[in-house]
Amino acid sequence: MAEPTLLARYLPILQWGRTYNGSVLTNDLVAAVIVTIMLIPQSLAYALLAGLPPVVGLYASILPLVAYALFGTSRTLAVGPVAVLSLMTASAAGAVAAQDTAEYLEAAITLAALSGIMLAVLGFLRLGFLANLLSHPVISGFITASGILIATSQIKHILGISGGGDNWPEMLGSLASNIGLTNPWTLAIGIPATLFLFWVRGGLKPALLRIGLKPRAADIAAKAGPVIAVALTILAAVMLDLAEKGVDLVGAIPQGLPPFATPSTDMDLIAQLWVPALLISVIGFVESVSVAQTLAAKRRQRIAPDQELIGLGASNIASAFSGGYPVTGGFARSVVNFDAGAETPAAGAYTAIGIALASLFLTPLLFSLPIATLAATIIVAVLSLVDLKTPGQLWRYSKADFAAHLATIVTTLLAGVELGVITGVVVGLLLYLWRASRPHAAIVGRVPETEHFRNVERHDVFTVPHVLSIRIDESLTYLNARWLEEYVLERVADQPEVRHVILMCSAVNEVDASGLESLEAINHRLSDSGIDLHLSEVKGPVMDRLKRTEFLEKIGGRVFLSQNRAFRELSRDNADPSLPDDIARGLI
Amino acid sequence: MAEPTLLARYLPILQWGRTYNGSVLTNDLVAAVIVTIMLIPQSLAYALLAGLPPVVGLYASILPLVAYALFGTSRTLAVGPVAVLSLMTASAAGAVAAQDTAEYLEAAITLAALSGIMLAVLGFLRLGFLANLLSHPVISGFITASGILIATSQIKHILGISGGGDNWPEMLGSLASNIGLTNPWTLAIGIPATLFLFWVRGGLKPALLRIGLKPRAADIAAKAGPVIAVALTILAAVMLDLAEKGVDLVGAIPQGLPPFATPSTDMDLIAQLWVPALLISVIGFVESVSVAQTLAAKRRQRIAPDQELIGLGASNIASAFSGGYPVTGGFARSVVNFDAGAETPAAGAYTAIGIALASLFLTPLLFSLPIATLAATIIVAVLSLVDLKTPGQLWRYSKADFAAHLATIVTTLLAGVELGVITGVVVGLLLYLWRASRPHAAIVGRVPETEHFRNVERHDVFTVPHVLSIRIDESLTYLNARWLEEYVLERVADQPEVRHVILMCSAVNEVDASGLESLEAINHRLSDSGIDLHLSEVKGPVMDRLKRTEFLEKIGGRVFLSQNRAFRELSRDNADPSLPDDIARGLI
């Protein structure tokens, strides 16, 4: 495949659009209808989770999809509101305004705008690699803890009581103090809806297969479970007049297309929101890219992570200007889109049309939808995110990764989503830097009758007392430069007969300026003690750079192409009669 | 040397104290006298630089030295006020209070206390490795920029005008607007004093050698230059009655021992000061450890960096409680101490006694010392810190290191010391993470007639189309896990005939949980395409951990001890007649 032009790189639609035809259109349209049906209750539910009016969820599912279709590189990613970002939006907006106020909605819109701008800027600067700072253990810990927080936050809607809190202790405390006010009618809707949705997730697909549906059709039909729950509970609410009995209903949703909205330009508000917006951007990007990569690999397609940042940035900016809140590529909806046969991002645009039609004509039907049904949808969706196997696996595999995972879970539960992510990143980075500052190195000796050199502690190898060979198993960078000095000088201090030190650099891919200064310092200090410093097996690119410095002239010893040659020549250098036979045999 | 007991580790005096005798005492006493003479003008000058009353500099040179003698591990480090920390103290204290107020002094004392506590905590937690985050290019950039800032800040004292500013543009602006008010008498003291001190630094030692002094004696005598300048300008001030002519003099310094002071416990103040205190701690620690390591290596001694943190922490706490400000091990004074023959930290304690005697009896003599003399001392001392060679060397050696260096210099000059350090650390870390996220890897083939495998792009090697061998030159960690997936899958996409992928892991020292997940994802996706994933040359410790997981059972292919064996067996696997001769020759 030829390299795309600059324009085509920033507008992927120019690539896939050229081969668009009738059969692709049909497949995309079918996928769009299925995803639309699934998205309507989900969008309402996630808006509820974000503490926003339900219609905001619909707005966030229209223009963002069109923007992603223009700028995104995944063929099948479905963009829109997702659970974790909804929770993060609630936490950030809740910190600057009270729910159900215009300020709260403005904060959510501003978050989307800030996040969109940040994503696009990161994309243009090609800084997608920063998402690497979120390791798998941190992400999975964050998702598990968020799942628990989100499910807990929805229990109040199942009970029909009020409550709040940004973290688990607060949420549980507010539930405990209000549980006496439970509305039995709300409970009578919420509990069956939850059980039904759990059954849909686990039991419906096998049942559909038993009555003869094909696996793919059964899969898709099972995803429509929430729509059935919505229809049945609306019916119940109307027939039993549940509004009279104190059951919270969705109520009037404004009919019509998304409004033109403008994010706030108040610098005080932006100062309060930029950190949460950055976290929302990074978490959203990581979630979206993981999904997009998984799906792309299944069809041997590729995505371009830096262009994905631009695509998601455009989506969020579109969301902000159409009265929505932060969006990203969601796992469940993308899989449905993929399974339903979507072939190009156009399917997303058709889905947008579907949601737009729904918000024009269907919203009156949702007037009597109980909030408890939406809460049940959320609870069932997020509990599948809670992963109880990972902690044990990590504990067995790597204590450092386990520590980062646990720190993320505990902080997220106790101090909320923002501190949770930050703690995970910081703990992961500190552990990484700690290990990077103590790289692996070994004193090596020659394996008898070969040219190989191995760790003296693990193998039965040959050494001579006046030559010390140290193999360094890492690039020399500023993180381990100080360690290198200490390590070499301590090994020399332990072996007073040493006259030659050979640093075997076969695993050294890079020597940065700090590493070079440490080598110079080591050379200087060894010279002071009458010891020569030699290098062996220096890689080509490293040697090229060393040649641009004065180091190779200052060095007391020499640079050898092979460790074997260095050892052979230097052990001979002041050979004494006590040396073993194989010097005589010419093996060294 | 036996491992010290826990108590002896935390109280190094228990080790060196046991062998203390008369000849060591004599050497230490001589060194103490010389250092005391040098320290008196320096302490006054640095207190001036910190914006504090001169006597605070003396206080900071008494108890901190005793504390370091008890807890420090360097035999010859001389602790006290230093230029860079004085500038950082002025910047931090100036942000919360106006100079010459009780609040300003309290802020300086509190900075010392916070910094002392942080250093000690870092030491007990053995977190000294965090200082590695300051790379050589960042430190040297910071020192150069600080030298320029400090010298600029002192010009006003040479001119006898007032001025201020935390950064270069502010300082230059305030100088430019006040230069018309220059006091000619101050200038007449300041310019000759500066020139004299420059000559002392460059020309005095050769002159002393010419008149027959021994090199070491000449060295030490040259360091006494500031004392001569102090004496001469005091004389001039008294004889010419310069106070009458508007020349600023040191004035009355309270006589007596340091008072008992208490740092503030006001949480608002601490909230404002903790970031500068942390930066002061890290910069101070890095400066001190570099000096201590250099001197220790000259005598084949060792220092213990984590215990150094405790020693410097104790010094700063001692400084705070005796009315001083942040201190650390200084370069110039430590070298003088070393050259003058100090053998143990006791020399520091004797110096403390010397300074205490001076603050009891000598301070009246300093009444008429012109401030311009102290400013000249500072200017001459810090201009030697400015290093104009390093930027060019870094540019030639490593563009990334040059970028971190330049960013540190520019930010320090334009935005002050705190932002300068932070920028340097962040830029250095980002560049490191960027490189760590794109490690080196290569497709390898067999060097004909050998068992060696080399990069196909650099060597003329043998490969077969259905076997793809990829050598990974880095540990697999979360920073490069996403890269690994992309790299392997893209190489496979480029070579459609591939049926076997061999990852050659000879340089993989570690696979963390994210790396493992990426290997699993690669295996999964390759399996989907009917390709087997194999590993070769997996190191022992890595293999041990992989065995604790299900990965080795799930993997489509096998784990081979050597790359050669893997390649030989897999190329044979579906050998076809078009393969070259050396298969027939049994070489693969």
TrEMBL record, chains A, B:
Leader sequence residues: none
Keyword Transmembrane: yes
Keyword Membrane on entry: yes
Cellular component GO terms held in the UniProt record: membrane
Topology in the lipid bilayer: Multi-pass membrane protein
Gene3D superfamilies in UniProt: STAS domain (3.30.750.24)
Subcellular location per the Swiss-Prot or TrEMBL entry: Membrane
GO annotation (BP), single: transmembrane transport
SUPFAM superfamilies for this protein: SpoIIaa-like
Keyword entries, A-Z: Membrane, Transmembrane, Transmembrane helix
Domain STAS: 457-570
Transmembrane segments: 20-40, 46-71, 78-98, 104-125, 137-159, 179-200, 220-240, 273-292, 365-386, 406-434
CDD domains: STAS_SulP_like_sulfate_transporter
Main location: membrane
Protein name listed in UniProt: Sulfate permease
Native organism: Aurantiacibacter zhengii
